[in-house]
Amino acid sequence: MAKKELQPSLKPSHFPTGESWIGYNLSRMKSQRQLMWMSFPFIAFIAIFAYGPLWGWLMAFQNYRPGLGFSQQEWVGMEHFRTLFTDPTFVRVIRNTLAMSLISLFLGFVGSIGLALLLNELRMVLFKRVVQTVSYLPHFLSWIIVTGIVANVLSTETGIVNVLLTKLGLISAPINFFADPKYFWGIVGLSSMWKEIGWGTIIYLAAMTSINPSLYEAASIDGAGRLRKMWNITLPGIKSTIIILLIINVGNVLNAGFEIQYLLGNGLVQDVSETIDIFVLKYGINLGNYSLATAAGIFKSVVSLVLIFMANGLAKALGEERLI
Q1: How far, in Å, CA of 96 to CA of 105, rounded?
Q2: What are phi and psi of 62, to 5 degrees?
Q3: Closest to 84 (Cα-Cα) out of 298, 296, 290
Q4: What is this structure's pTM?
Q5: CA dihedral 219, 224, 227, 233 (to 10 degrees)
Q6: pLDDT of 159-204, one tens digit each?
Q7: Is 223 left (phi over 0), alpha (psi -120 to 50) or beta?
Q8: Which of 110, 135, 181, 259 supports an S-S bond with 272, CB 3.0-4.6 Å?
Q9: Cβ contacts of residue 173 below 8 Å, gap of 6+?
């Protein structure tokens, strides 16, 4: 009974001065009009640039031709979607997109959490700040610069990787990493991790600050070492943050990227380097088939939305933190 009294049902009789649900919310909106006016530019931005262009999805159901009016376009229904799902090239780029995205997701999560745990254990504040600053500086570099660095590091002539492997006697001749398809997915995953690992640790370090220090003190009294504290205190303390970020990133599993694959890819690794975004550019926009490109974009958006709801529902079923 006490719990029901603390959380009464929102019937009209429970609102102040007996006003209706609509009147109650209108009065609240009026009292918070300054906040509403402050949020209006952001709502307008999202509406114009995120939801406004959605009318262009109609092109996926048309045989779109530039220069013709909307009523003059030829409606073809689901023809472009059938073309996509029966095209071996599109099936291959879905495989490549999923593979590179999952590799980057795994390496990014493990790397960010591991680096955050190590930085959290550092006692030298100055050294900790220097390491953290240096680690997230690559986040601010464009992919043009990052791919240039990766190309130099893996160069067959002066690349440090080939030089070290040769000096250590692990290889007899330099390896051309960009000519062998089996190396491409690993290069993309490691490059993405190096670029974003420092930026990802910021969130986990912020979550670690909310852990009660008395838990570490009690663990020290019980004889727990640093590794035991990480496993039994730190990781459970940031579990909700890990799950929320995982749900968000699962929704981006088809966004494997465009720049790094486009810049590092070549004809020798084309079968493993093309992603959905490159497919849209190559077979849709460059060839003037805008309807096919739009259909591929709709496929990405729908799958991403479904994955988010599935991950969120799974987290709810397991009793973990979730988005909604």
Answers
A1: 14
A2: -125, 160
A3: 296
A4: 0.81
A5: -20
A6: 899 999 999 888 888 999 999 899 999 999 999 999 999 888 999 9
A7: left
A8: 181
A9: 166
